[in-house]
Write a structure and sequence with these properties.
Two copies of one chain form a homodimer.
Chain A (H helix, E strand, L loop, with lengths): L5 H9 L4 H10 L5 H5 L7 H13 L3 E5 L7 E5 L1 H4 L2 H14 L6 H11 L2 H15 L5
Antiparallel strand pairs in A: 1-2
Helix pairs in contact in A: 6-7
Chain A binds a DNA duplex (30 and 30 nucleotides) through helix 4.
Chain lengths: 138, 138
DNA sequence: TGACACTGCTTGTATTTTGCAAGTGGATGC
DNA sequence: GCATCCACTTGCAAAATACAAGCAGTGTCA
């Protein structure tokens, strides 16, 4: 680690171009499988994805389980530590919505609209829902 | 741009290992000069710093002015677009405070303590203060 | 039982980004 | 008028990323 600054700590863990996008896919789009992450429009390379998933698991931001139905499949889900990235993701979204100089996807607006007014209470509600969705061996 | 997702938009602009640290130095530590940014404990290289400052100015997150007293000096300050990164920075700090596995700098706690309880109102107050500090030709 | 396809990866290599050290040109100080 | 400060720039090595191909384990169907 380069310093003991809390901001730097977060940046060193998820401050790359891919980690938060993987979290987003888990959080808002119900993605759970390796192949699903690969198909996101940003186009992550397969070795990068493998690398980030391993890192996020090591940091206990996501967890990895075998799919009991299909033995070759692996299910990824968020831990509470991962779910608590929600306020960060929403605040980045709200900033972009305010300042983006390109046209943003209007569907994503619906996700942000929940956060737009009173952030903390809405975030609490969303967190509870996510905790249910991402409970182990769901 | 890789996609029209609001989260991705933010990541593509300030989602590297240095940009938010520069913003932090402007926001909380009153740094205004090139040399001051160089001296931060994370140790940014001078070419990286020059590159990021140029990018942040191009994105209108910071502004660049000549110091009227010392003509060789250049003053950097935040625009409102830059000041509005505050909720993002605070939410990263709060997450780190909750989950960091290393010992964090306790001085930074004081910055976060403002945000800890009721985020939006505190953020509004901090934003107003920053707008004054970073008004052009201050 | 064997051929084929799907799954989550790994491996190899080209390209890009970053990091480090040294240097540059225009003030400023004495 | 010479050294020093300031905001950079340049050159090169090292690391991270992107792209393409391959591979082992499982499932599917004949």
């Amino acid at each position: 680690m380069r310093s003991d600054c809390p901001l730097n700590y977060g940046i060193e863990i998820f401050g790359d171009k891919w980690s938060l996008l993987i979290i987003r896919d888990l959080m808002f789009f119900g993605k759970r499988y390796y192949n699903e992450f690969l198909q996101s429009t940003e186009g992550i390379a397969t070795n990068m994805l493998a690398d980030r998933l391993a890192m996020l698991e090591k940091e206990k931001i996501i967890r990895k389980e075998k799919d009991s139905q299909h033995k070759q499949k692996i299910i990824y889900s968020l831990t509470e530590k991962g779910i608590d990235l929600l306020p960060i993701i929403l605040s980045i979204g709200l900033w972009s919505e305010k300042y983006a100089t390109i046209e943003l996807n209007p569907n994503r607006d619906m996700i942000l609209s929940d956060a737009r007014k009173s952030v903390p209470r809405r975030v609490e509600k969303m967190k509870k829902k996510l905790l249910k969705e991402h409970s182990p061996t769901a």
